[in-house]
Amino acid sequence: MEQLNDKWLRLLGIPLSVAMLLLAEMPFFFPGRWDLLWKYMLISIICTGLIWEASRYILIRIRRLYPGLEHTTARVAWMLTGFAMVAGMGQFVMQVLIHEFDIAPAPVLTFRVWLINFSISMFFIVLIGGIYEAIYFFGHYKLALQRTELLKKEQARQHLEALKNRVNPHFLFNCLTTLSALIGEDARRAERFVDELSKVYRYLLRANRQLQVPLADELAFSESYTYLLITRLGAAFDVHTKVDAQYLEQKLPPLILQNLLDYLIRTQTISPEKPLLVDISANENALVLTAPYQPKTVWVDSGNLDWAAIASAYEQQSGRQAVQAVVDNRLHFRLPFMQEIEAAA
Hints:
Number of strands: 7
Strand content: 5-15%
Number of helices: 9
Distance between the termini: 36 Å
Helix content: 55-70%
Number of domains: 2
CATH architecture of the largest domain: 2-Layer Sandwich
């Protein structure tokens, strides 16, 4: 049976509520008869205890039949019905006992007396039941919020992992093709190409274990990644970075620059006549990336690496909204910096 953790409420609540109720009723039903008070008290505590326990049992059973927030209306309706039945029968039994022990100065087996006692009993049962239900409701509401938040974080983590692990399928092939050509043409450039390629994959491996990285690390990675792209694409592609030192410790999701550069290469025209020159800058709130808006008429489907996926993963991971806009025939990307996540103890 579900634990309600109401031991002290039952031990103290029953006798106290009975005593307060009888003292309030005394001037109307047995004025000045203190000799009857303890008898009323004994019978009332026994009957109220039984009513409370029966109502408590009904509450637990109905929670099992109608659990969670989605069944709140049905649960409350059935609880009120059960409470009314228990209160009605309990008050009738109490009146019979009082009548049989002949301790009432006036007749008690009347509908009027039953209705008064039933109404008072229902008031207290509904009040206490409402407290139980409020605790239950807000407990489940809090749990639902926590589960929703955990689900969002897990989805963001999985989405981010998919983006981090998803290197352009042609990237390694293109790099190897470029390297093969460089070996025969320029051994020194080939050596640097291998060095930059190793830096890229070293960062990829490290980034898989991080949820956020300093902007300085992202820029260092993008420098190596850009070198590989420039070597392959030539003068038709370049990246200019101008970021003040005061912003280098700001946090971003790892590999966001790789995703943006890949997105631009897939969607924008790159040619000697229309070079893709990317500018990266920062202010106190965000990283800003701009590039000419020259969309391809036909481009290979990027699958999960489209702007919607990048923006969704960024927002889920950072809690901030990434923005893309076209202004004066230039693409503008604004990536708000993340709040630093404290390391777990």
